[in-house]
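Two proteins, back to back. First:
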Amino acid sequence: MPSANEPNSVFEKLGLTENPFGPTPNPRYFYKTPSHAEARASLIIGLECGLGFQALIAPPGMGKTTILFDVLDRFNKIARTAFLFQLQGNSKDFLRHFALELDEADPPSDMVQVQSVINRLLINERRKGRRTILIVDEAQSLSPAVLETIRLLSNFESPTDKLLQIILAGQPQLAVKLADTALKQLQQRITIVNTLLPLDKEQTHRYIEHRLSISQYRGQSLFTADAIASLWAVSKGVPREINTLCFNALLLLAATGARQVNTDILDEVIADFARGELIAEKTRARAYSLPPAASSRATITATGSGRLEFYGFHKEPFLPTPDPSFLCLTAPYRAALSNLYSGILAHEKVLVLTGESGTGKTHVIACLMELLRTGNIPAQYVLAHQWFSSTTYPFSFKMASSHEYPVIFVDNAQSLSQESLEQVRLFATESIAESGLQFVLAGLPAVHNRLTSSGFSSSAHPRDHIRIGPLEQSELGNYIAARIRGAQSDMDLRPIFSTEALEALFIHSEGVPRLVNSVCSVALQNAFSRRERLITAEMIHDSAGRAMSPVTPEEKLPPAVHAPENSVLKAAGVLFDLQRVLRSAKPPSASKPLRRCST
């Protein structure tokens, strides 16, 4: 096969200034699919918010390194950056490589001394007003001992913030290594886990056209529609494989003198690769799809529209409505979602989710319902005050086409009458028509106490009592970044919360998501009135006293509402595979058949 270093004249013959499908991860060619754009934005916002640890985990060829280089380009002028990849050796070797990246001419070989040198270098950078960012690519090749050494690097900090921010990137084997109980402390420090999805057929078309345009091509399309369809089917939407096929197709196009790459040319390229055996990794993601978005509860006024435009939003980021597109896998959310999801698949009859007001219980329910729907597990939602104390219920127990009963989510369950609790108990003990129903009761902590005193037998009493609490201060920046990212159309216009603003926000909200949303919403209004994008501590203090009214029952998630398209939820299968190993999700009971989640 031809070499990727073919003379430029080959490409000039086609009207190109350079090879648009080169093998190197050139950030100039970065193409923003929804999942790639989200991963990039998440990493950038996480760094800007001062997060200590992030991870980017995806199969090979998906574009991880291109995103990392793009992020480095963004921070090179304002931060000290170090990029390490495919490292071999032990912890001492890793530290010496890192010190060399920080321009230490001759790092000592002693472990203690080299750590002291690194600490000095980090402090010097901070005195210059610059953060230090370490990106470790292909981290799945590192030993557990080296990964633990990387965790220890995060202990370098000043009295106010981290001296070092770290991004671990690698293939799915990295998630397996992080599941090791010996690395539990590292697991706990990883604030954001991002993943990438393969391109669909239309994205593949736009991806190819994008790369051609970057190389200054201005003529008719070089690939026919049939060729692109065939190329997508063979490549499975993996960017690296798309590049390889396109590069060789262009060389053959130039050699034959044809005007377009058609299926004949592409078939010949594929045949040269032994019937497509270059596609070694089947990295296609699970085909999750989501229903269309429902309208928000808020009516956007002219002033609101101006604010959205000023900050580059396509919707309000801090509304109290439980919108699954704003899912942020903070520790409380991740634990609640994983344990509820595992319990449902294990056919637990009654699961209980409790938390104080405003901690995000209904948001967890909304996200979980969408995950179940995408897996063809029927789910229905009901508020406690809608549950009638009679034989008529506010929802249907009709079985789905899969012959499975639905999972019933009862919100504000602390308001259930004693008679309603008895009905739940009867269904849970299968004394009514051998019911296959499952219940998730969500509400204030009093829910669990009421169940204990309501005569639930040991077989029906919930074995899984999941509690959700407020955010930790270290997670607040991640939470806000996710809300902004979910509402953002133009990342260059986004509001920036200063470190002092985040500290003030935590003081006023105590990490309660509903209060965080309320204060942030008012703070954005204040900042917009001054036409400022930097949210300061002063704005937070001024906004904290203007709390919004509590969410009414009518503003809770109604049964008909579905989530808008969201690549976090669309990648739910991937993310939950990751979080199952990153967090100790309770394994389902071996004595019970699992629900089948059809994808």
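And the second protein:
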Amino acid sequence: MAGQTDDCLSRLKILFNSTTPVVIIETLEEERLMFLVRSACSELDLPLFEWSIATGLVRSGSNAPVQAPTGQRTTQTDVAKRIAAAQAALVQANLPPVDFGSIAADPPSSQGAPIVNTATASGVLAHLDTMTIPSVFVLKDFHRQMDDAIVVRRLREVAQDFAHQRRTMILTGPSVTVPPELSNLVEYVDLALPDRERLRQIIQETYRRLAGMYTLKSALDEEGWNAVASNLRGLTEEEAERAVAQVIVKNYGLMPPCVTEVLEAKKEILRRTGMLEFVDVTSSMASVGGLENLKKWLQKRAGAFADDARSFGLEPPRGLIIMGVQGCGKSLCARSIAGEWKLPLVRFDSAAVFDKYIGETEKRIKKLFDVAEELSPCVLWIDELEKVFAGSAPDSASVDAGVSSRLLGSFLSWMQDRKSPVFVAATSNNVNALPPELIRKGRFDEIFFVDLPNSAERRAIFGLQLARRKRNPADFDLDRLAGASADYSGAEIDAVVQSAMYASFSEHKPMSTQSLLEELKNTVPLSATRAEDIAELRDWARERAVPASLPEGVHPDRLPA
């Protein structure tokens, strides 16, 4: 392994050599973790011990009891070396090979039980307190034991002792909450998501493994291999291996359909994480009526994610906030940006990020950012931004123990410091609820205000909605409809067309301009029921945001180049 794996390995070796008493590694990839820890211990010539509630404390690599001398055990590696030497000697003597399969599968070893009295958390900590040799101890799922005050106290005492020795405890599990008593004794290590090079290795390793079980074919060229690796980005190594294995078995090899099928497998895996959701992009800005200023802004930045743009010296656009009146197409615009730029779209699920345990929300948001960057270039859609940071005001800390404020801080830091091309498309209905530090220049590239559609935009919206429902817009008086729907939102026009469709179907007659006009008369628009709120929103946006639409009467063709 290379790159990020080497960085993690180096980090572990530094922590072991610097007498760090406790290392926290939060991961579901236990096998990958143990491979890295074993590699670090092997390079540093440090003994490694593993503990779990199911087995107690054992020396890594065998089930031998901890007190058994190393020289008296025969490991799997020792047996493999002896078998290889015996096979080579048989070849040199022109003798037929011998099948050592049963010996290789079950090498002789002392199968004694783990050390006595280490099956419990208190027992293993009591034993670690007596250890004197430099060692590394991996305590698996130990977070489930730290609800006990006695365990926390013993852990603290052992850690304080280890801080002066070359001994380290690694606490690992999906999520480890560190008690305050241990906060000054702990260091963290993150297992980075695999890069493209490592993903290619996983594809090759998985293919070779399955080729030993099934008859497989490989019909992918170099571009196809790169496409499969790119579509796996954002997954852990184990998730990537599982996704690749599924498509290989399904297609009896690495075939062209694997490129798209592995992307579908990734979408399903990310959906189960609950924080990010892949959204199928079926529309572009062409499906949005009006908003010519916004469309022109997006058009100018369409190629900014390409390699030639970076060579030119351009930085990728960072993001925008689309604010305005409800029902005027803000969410549709955010989704359509990905289609316009031909980038994957992932949606931020704020409800799934918040967790009832203190500290877990911050960990989840960090993981979300890591996944989003691995998926780059992509569009990250955050709907109703104000609800994500609803409790971030200075006087709101008591509401959620300051979680929203810390979440805002993490988000601002990521927006400012991120290097990967992740474009954040955020929407907001109530910009007054947004923290001022979030909407200042430098966080987002621009803030666009989406007002109620003007006459030309209403005409375009009627045309789009009719065409979407298999009606020819030329059969309707669009100018008359646009005039009769003044101060209606795009969502309200959509609802009017839908209602007219129901009425025409039930009456067994074709839909006409008149039927649409009748539905308009029966609809009370939001502009009438929330007139004061809309006026306040317009006043705020007049000096602080860029209008997404052209002024009434200005044609798009008259825009300056």
